[in-house]
Structures are given as structure tokens and as C-alpha cells.
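Hey, quick one: can you model this chain's 3D structure?
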Amino acid sequence: MRHLKIYLSVGLALILLAGVGLPTTAAAQSDPAVRTIDITGELVQSVLSPDGSLLAVWENSAYHGNELILSLLPIQLVNLDTGDVTRLIGPTDYAWDAAFSPDGATLVSYHGSGWIFVWDTASGEEIRRIPAVVGAARVGFLPDGTLVTALTGPTNMTLLWDLAAGTPSGLLARQYGSYAQAMEAMSRQAAGMSTMTVAASPVGDALITVSLGGKIWVWDLATGKVSLLRDGDDERPLLPIRRVTVTPDGTLIYYDNQAGALYALDVASGAETELLALEKVGSPVAVMPDGSRVAWVDADLTSVQIVSLDAPDVVPQAIPLPEVDLDLRANEVTNNLTFSADGSRLAFTGYISDDDANMVVVIDLE
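Sure thing. Here's the predicted structure for all 366 residues.
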């Protein structure tokens, strides 16, 4: 009887310990729902709406040597809740970049022909088109709905737009002491200064631009002044930064590189901390806006891995990806793995095939 009491006590203790928040592995977590939605395209890029309900998908023109393929030309607006796909008809060339407004009611696309197209996301209809600059640009929004276009190239200029009026409302540009200094800087750093991405601080006071060479600049929107937060190798761009995420309070920037390392960069001090060093990844690392969790696709392209940054050493939650008949290419398969703003959904595109078949993968986590 004494031994029985001891066994019962130990068993009760184990039961109690199981519920006190000890680190758990993926086996103890609920299985998320994984869905696929068919789209057209070979190498596509995409952007997720803030609420996670819509995904805008467009073809990468460089993949086709800028040759126009009419069936791939329209931007596809994918409703991730219903699976409906709307083709946005209007532009006569491929989109260079696209962005949703903060409320998700508007989609803006930038085209190399020099036009900005503004779309109503509820109807899929074109609202207006705005004449801009011929070439390429990255687009984004400030929290107040101001449109941002960051022009690629050595000038590194960023235009702010009044979307309702269709006119520029501000200009951010680097300043030099003389014309000779400007020409010298642009000649020496022409490739590396090209803007790879642009992100607004959620508090609305700053804009972050990232170069191909890994430099990160922070622009003060009140004064127009720019400060170099992270230096890089502008003479040999190797895409050392693949994606940036700014925390809701604007104090931290998360970014990852091609080697699978994830960093946190303090905006005030410029201090850089390595958070994760993943040996084998098949995608950029997606970071939840609040920095609590990160996700990536494994190198075998068979699952999405999710881990909490509060417990990075815990075994990641592995979410199996659907088996498909499409040709998977490791460097292109998960070009835009992204969390919704509330972290309840993951979505990505990038399955490749020779007959223009493609799909969106939607993972509902909660």
C-alpha cells in the first residue's frame, strides 16, 4: 500500500507538471489547416493584405526576359477565405511591385512603363492610374495611407504620394556637399545602392529603405534627414538582407539573409543581435509583426517550420506541405512566405511548372 501511495503521488505530480507551461514540441500542438488555391504563372511574387484575407499575385517579368505573355500579365487578386481569383485587367506590362493600403481597401501596383495603378480590392476594378517615373520602384504605405514609391538605382530617391489627388506630396533624397561628391558616390556604389525593399515604421515617424548591398537607412519623415543604421557591402551586392519586418512600436527591425540567419536590429542604438542560425532553409524567414514567432520552409520543401523567438531551442512545429505534381525549385518556391498581421494565417506562392500552373498555399494556424 505504501508503494501504491508513492506511485500515485508521483503520477499526480507528473500530471500537474504537464500543465504548467513547460516547453512543448510540435506533437503537442494542434494541427493547422493547410489549403491550396490554383493560380496561373511560373515565377510569381505576392503580397498579403494586412488582415490576411487577400493575396495579390503578379508575374516576375525578369523570369521571361521581359517578354510579354498575355496570359500571365494581369495581377491576380486571390481571396484566401473563398478561393476566388480576380484578374485585374488594365496594365500593358508586368507589375514591378504592389502593396495594400493599411485598411486593405486599396491595392497599388507600380509598372515599369511609368504608371501607378490603383485598384479597389472589393470589386477588383481600377480606381485610377497615376503617371510616375519610367523604370522600377518599390511601393509601400505609411500608416496614414500615404503611398510610398522608392526608386531603384543610385539616386535612392523616395517619393511620397497623396493617393486621392494622385500627386507627389514629398521627396526623400540623399544630399551631398557637391555635385562631384554625388557623382563619385553614385559611381562607386551604383549597384549596391539600388533599393531592394522599403518599410514604414508602424508608428508613422520613419521610413526604412534597404539596399541590395545590405545597407539600412532610416528616414525621419518630419525632417527628411537620413541616417545609416546598418552598413553593408555596396560594391558587391549579394542580397545579404532578404526581408525586413518592423515591430509595432518601431524600435526593432528583424531581417534574415541567404544563409538562414535571423537578426534583430535596434533602431535607436544600431546594435545587431543574431536570433537564429538555420542550417537548411528553402525560403526567407517570415517574422510575425510582434516578433513572437518565425516561420520558414525547410530545404526539402516538404514542411513549414514555426518556432517561438522566446524559446528558439524548442523543437519547431512542423506543418507538412501538400504533395503536388508541379516542379519544385528550391530558390523560387517560397518567395513570399508571410504572416497575417494577427499571426493567425501564413500564405505563400511559388510552386513552379512548365505549363504556367501554380498555386497559393494557405495555412490557417488558429
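One thing worth noting: The first helix runs from residue 2 to 17.
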